[in-house]
């Protein structure tokens, strides 16, 4: 049997929802997995993926086989990876989700998607990318000791997005290492009030409050310095008509939330970035993905 898994990019945190809010986007990695004599890993698009047992898709497949007490033989894994690596768009989550869904299909579907979200969140350490990658839409998650609780709500047509993606990467370990061990009560209230307002504003389609709701004091202020020209890019996006602007996941992408009918933001931002010489920033228009990862099985 051959299994093909298509996994959306994701944007975690959405400003104030550190490690809890995330959404799925219309950019997709695909992974094809089939039994083989030995381990062969290929990329169709020249993406520099690991081609040995340290490959994240392979490691995740192996993890699920181990959990299920099954022996893993040889495999051919073929990856197509347009989601850029280490830019806060969920490229590692896409590998983890593809590995778990692929392994689950090869094993005859022993686990539910909820159980797979639980495993994926523990592998990644936080649920805010893997949950929307599995489910699509806007997802709020809570990671308790052993259990991950998720709630997905469709976003379709309520908003659109533009990802401002720099050439430079920012590894999640570095971006997490920049965070303080403790925050003040005032900053906690600042974030929880905004995460609540953001959720209500997105779900109701009341976009007027998004600019206030995407404010954050738990991670963005500590990460901005690791993303070259980020303050300037924030300002450009804000004055070009974005409803809200935030660092996607751990960065380095800066995400703009747009009205669904906004056709001027992308050309205006491209022009302003060019004018300022910020030519290593790419502007990618996106919409919300509502389906989450899709698994196809072939005989
Ligand atoms: N919530 C995580 C973080 C997302 O901000 O570190 C990382 O992809």
Task: Write up what this structure looks like.
The chain folds into two domains: 2-153 and 289-298, Ribosomal Protein S5, domain 2; 160-286, Alpha-Beta Plaits, CATH 3.30.70.890. The strands form two sheets. Strands 1, 2, 3, 4, 5, 6 and 11 form a seven-stranded mixed sheet that branches. A four-stranded antiparallel sheet has the order 8-9-7-10. A hairpin with a 6-residue loop joins strand 8 (244-247) and strand 9. The model has no long low-confidence stretch (mean pLDDT 96). The chain has 299 residues and is an alpha+beta fold. The protein is built from ten helices and eleven strands. Helix 1 (56-67) crosses helix 2. L-homoserine (HSE) binds at residues 12-13, 18-19, 126, 128-129, 172, 175-176, 219, 249-250.
The tally of strands reads 11
CATH architecture of the largest domain: 2-Layer Sandwich
Sum up the overall morphology in one term.
globular
In round numbers, the mean pLDDT is 96
Task: Give the count of structural domains.
Answer: 2
The amount of beta strand, in percent, is 25-35%
Low-confidence stretches: none
Largest pleated sheet: 7 strands, mixed
End-to-end distance: 5 Å
Q: Provide the CATH top-level class of the largest domain.
A: Alpha Beta
Number of helices: 10
Radius of gyration, rounded? Answer: 19 Å
Which ligands accompany this protein? L-homoserine
Task: Give the SSE order as H and E letters.
Answer: EEEHEHHHEEEHHHHHEEHEE
Structural class assignment: alpha+beta
Q: Under CATH, the topology of the largest domain is which?
A: Ribosomal Protein S5, domain 2
Helix content: 25-40%
């Amino acid at each position: 049997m051959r299994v093909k898994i298509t996994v959306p990019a994701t944007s975690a945190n959405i400003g104030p929802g550190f490690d809890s809010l995330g959404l799925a986007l219309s950019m997709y990695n695909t992974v094809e997995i089939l039994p083989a004599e030995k381990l062969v890993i290929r990329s169709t698009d020249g993406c520099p993926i690991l081609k040995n047992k340290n490959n994240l898709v392979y490691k995740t497949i192996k993890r699920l086989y181990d959990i299920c007490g099954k022996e893993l033989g040889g495999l051919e894994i073929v990856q197509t990876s347009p989601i850029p690596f280490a830019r806060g768009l969920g490229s590692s989550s896409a590998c983890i989700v593809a590995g778990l869904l692929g392994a689950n299909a090869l094993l005859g579907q022993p686990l539910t998607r909820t159980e797979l979200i639980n495993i994926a969140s523990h592998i990644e350490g936080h649920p805010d990318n893997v949950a929307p990658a599995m489910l699509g839409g806007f997802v709020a998650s809570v990671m308790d000791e052993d259990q991950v609780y998720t709630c997905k709500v469709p976003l379709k047509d309520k908003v659109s997005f533009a990802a401002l993606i720099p050439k430079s990467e920012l590894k999640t370990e570095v971006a997490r290492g920049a965070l303080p061990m403790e925050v003040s009560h005032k900053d906690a209230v600042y974030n929880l009030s905004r995460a609540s307002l953001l959720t209500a504003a997105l779900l109701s389609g009341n976009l007027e409050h998004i600019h206030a709701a995407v404010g954050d004091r738990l991670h963005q202020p500590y990460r901005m310095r690791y993303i070259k020209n980020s303050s300037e890019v924030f300002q450009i996006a804000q004055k070009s008509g974005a409803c809200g602007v935030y660092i996607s996941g751990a960065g380095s992408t800066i995400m703009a939330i747009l009205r669904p009918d906004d056709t001027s933001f992308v050309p205006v931002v491209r022009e302003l970035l060019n004018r300022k010489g910020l030519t290593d920033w790419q502007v990618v228009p996106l919409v919300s993905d509502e389906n989450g990862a899709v698994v196809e099985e072939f005989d």
